[in-house]
Amino acid sequence: MWWGGRGQSFNIAPQKAEPDVGSVRRTGTLEPRSCQLGSHLASGCLPGEQILAWAPGVRKGLEPELSGTLICTNLRVTFQPCGWQRRTLIHVSGLSRVQLLRPGSPLKFIPEEILIHGRDFRLLRVAFEAGGLEPQAFQVTSAIVQARAQSSQAQQYAGISLSKAGQSSGSRKPPIPLLETSEDWETERKKQGARGWRVSTVNERFDVATSLPRYFWVPKRTLDSEVRRAFGHFHQGRGPRLSWHHPGGSDLLRCGGFYTASDPNKEHIRAVESMLQAGHSDVVLVDTADELPSLTDVQLAHLKLRALCLPDSSAAEEKWLSALEGTRWLDYVRSCLRKASDISVLVTSRVRSVVLQERGDRDFNGLLSSLVQLLSAPEARTLLGFQSLVQREWVAAGHPFLTRLGVTGASEEAPVFLLFLDCVWQLLHQFPAEFEFSEFFLLALHDSARVPDTLTFLRDTPWERGKQSGQFNSYTQIYTPGYSQPPAGNSVNLQLSVWDWDLRYSSEQILQFHNPGYDPEHCPDSWLPRQQPSFMVPGPPSSVWLFSRGALTPLNQLCPWRDSPSVLAVSSRWLPRPAISSESLADQEWGLPSHWGACPLPPGLLLPGYLGPQIRLWRRCYLRGRPEVQKGLSAPTISGLQDELSHLQELLRRWTPRVSPEDHSKKRDPNTILSQSH
């Protein structure tokens, strides 16, 4: 399995900047070990996948070493141990040292060993049988290098379509709603109990914004004509819309930055204010970019983290922790969790409208909105609930996966989604009984973000995803400046979803997606009745606040186009900052001011720790290239934990010296201890 080092696969996909190179070297001769390439291998290929070359070999770096087959296809490089029939996809960035083989470069000698360093922090080391003298060793190594050279931009948009046989057998129902139809959005709205909201079809043909989904939630009393006018005054047309309705009555919204160069009339301003207020008298605008790292910071921290965690890192062992701190990655995780905790307090403490505002509305808005729902809604912590959350707040909301993960080669690369998964792992580590999914599900999702087998993470916008899948081929092409366009070509009728785990993982692997420590009593039905928001209190009448740098600052108005200049029209850094109390925002919100009233901590709300050692390194993810570090990590299942416990007990019995009862009593006798000390 991918988390245990068996049956791993390394994808071939175009990359950017980093040394996408191969490494082969001469080593000592190995005893030949035979492993036939059975017919089950070809049958285990993904739809549209073709085997280019294969060679028998031995997987090194494991105890015991595994005999198997190294296989290169048009989509991936995979090592399949003898007797294993598991399919797992993991991305690779390239190979390194001793001889560097760049994509397209010729192989000038017979390889005896090949090393593959993956961008997901893994290391695949395979020694070929017969010292590489068999022709398959040369063929598969050459195929790996050439396949990477042939990876073009067109492959970025290819994906893997279902075969004709699969299409003719009927449409496959996705495990969760993909939010591609108005019915999906209406079902989700009813599930959240958002009675004051409706599904808008104003962007059904993507003529408002190609980065927005075709459907989204707007206030019930707002007409689509007003929505169209209001969205035109936000950056890239991404106006305010509902992300999540709290069962106590609050609403969490997200939107882009104000387009201050526009000149709206009074009706347009009234429409914008109405959508921001969402029927509430208390409105809090959250400056998302404040206190969080920039995209450049995230990318630089991730590159440093990867360089540090690779097996050939140059960092000295005694300075490793200092080098880890120098990457700033854990600092950025801490900042995200701290801000998400504050926003969750704002949402749950009073009935209000909380608006997340980011200039592009496609990166940290999705991260914070997702974390707030995980902290506040137990249903989001279930396996299906979390998948629906990612589909809604990241995929449907237009997060530019293709650009941020560096597939397009653009300069805006920054793994914001991977930063979010690290934050989720921190929550899972601090509250292990609150989450139905396990760490291995997060690892599978982490690796799937770089796998080009579905359209889920291979597009920057919902328009591109729908266009490629043939979802709306009859629609007129609408172009929004600043967004990439997929190349022309034949689109397929049906595409796989990343949530179709059973097409890529065995039933045993999927079983380990479930957290054995999850407490069934934390199910959504036992949480909070939607009709009893008694723990929440209304805010003061007609109050508008800006939340920035951990403090609430009162505002005179919502929009920057009134007679007096608005603080939202410029950077919030010039604002005078009130002294931040040593108390947490939760203490301030539930205790001050007195006329707002006080209320206990809402049930179901998680407030994580983010100080010092409370934020940890995700070792099972980032140190996967170091098998010696993986030893001692918790087992994935109950039976695995039992086996590990039995093994530890056996070791304890071996290492404990045999002491007679008399000797044991003497050691316990204080007089004996005193006499020995004299």
Automatic annotation (TrEMBL):
GO terms for biological process: phosphatidylinositol dephosphorylation. Residues 1-25, 161-194, 658-678 are annotated as: Disordered. It holds the Pfam family 3-PAP. It comes from the Eukaryota. Residues 660-670 have a biased composition (Basic and acidic residues). InterPro entries: MTMR12-like_C (IPR022587), Myotubularin (IPR030564), Myotubularin-like_Pase_dom (IPR010569), Prot-tyrosine_phosphatase-like (IPR029021). Residues 179-622 form the Myotubularin phosphatase domain. SUPFAM superfamilies: (Phosphotyrosine protein) phosphatases II, PH domain-like. One of its GO terms (cellular component) is cytoplasm. Belongs to the protein-tyrosine phosphatase family. Non-receptor class myotubularin subfamily. This is Myotubularin related protein 11. It comes from Ursus americanus (American black bear). The lineage of its organism: Eukaryota, Metazoa, Chordata, Craniata, Vertebrata.
